[in-house]
Amino acid sequence: LRGSKSFTAALAAEAERNGHGLAYKSVSVGHLEAAPLSPSRLSLGRASSTATSTAAPEQSRPRDYLLLAMFSCFCPVWPINIVGLVFSIMSRNSGQQGDMDGARRLGRMARLLSIVSIILGTIIIVLYIALSVRGNISF
Predict the structure, then answer these.
(1) From CA 75, how far away is CA 31, in angstroms rounded?
(2) Which helix (H) or strand (E) holds 15?
(3) 29 by DSSP, 3-state: which?
(4) How far, in Å, are 45, 46, 52, 63, 80 from residue 35 at the CA level?
(5) Is the CB of residue 57 less than 8 Å from the CB of residue 72?
(6) Which family does it belong to (predicted)?
(7) Residue 62 CB: number of other CB atoms within 10 A?
(8) Beta bridge partners of 134
(9) Which of 15, 32, 49, 100 has its CA 20 to 30 A from that of 79?
């Protein structure tokens, strides 16, 4: 290896030893190959404030489907609808803590479990009424 201010390319055997399949590319110190990922990393100095002043627009709080989950608790599929209610409460808590992606994901799961609970509950109620009218079920 030379004693210069540049990174040297790794050999293929060294690339396999360190767990990577790709060899490193030679880059001199201080130069970036790829564009920065965020606007705040465009400049390391104080050259421009326009790159750092563009903030992401404020996202609205995602829905937690708490009313739907509470309504689904009246259906006779209690393990599913209770879990949907728990996911809904977790979604509300995540939204209040600022984790919008987690709140959105938990809200979707709460909605799915609540809808499944309502559909299965409706099927169970309809089957119970249909069988009790025919006289096959007596309680």
Answers:
(1) 63
(2) helix 12-17
(3) coil
(4) 16, 18, 15, 35, 47
(5) no
(6) Belongs to the CD225/Dispanin family.
(7) 20
(8) none
(9) 100
Tokens of 1: 């290896």
Compute the distance between CA of residue 106 and CA of residue 97 in angstroms, rounded to an integer: 14
Amino acid identity for residue 78 in this structure: W
Phi, psi values for residue 74, rounded to 5° = -85, -10
| Locus of tokens 């309680």 | 139
14 is written with which tokens? 């060294």
Please indicate, yes or no, whether the overall pTM of this predicted structure exceeds 0.70. no
Residue 89 CA to residue 83 CA, distance in Å, equals 10
> What distance in Å separates the CA atoms of residue 21 and residue 112, rounded to the nearest whole number?
41
Per residue in 98-116, pLDDT (tens digit) is 999 999 999 999 999 999 9
With both helix axes pointing from N to C terminus, report the angle between 100-134 and 78-97 in degrees, rounded to the nearest 10.
Answer: 160
Q: Is 6 helix (H, G, I), strand (E, B) or coil?
A: strand
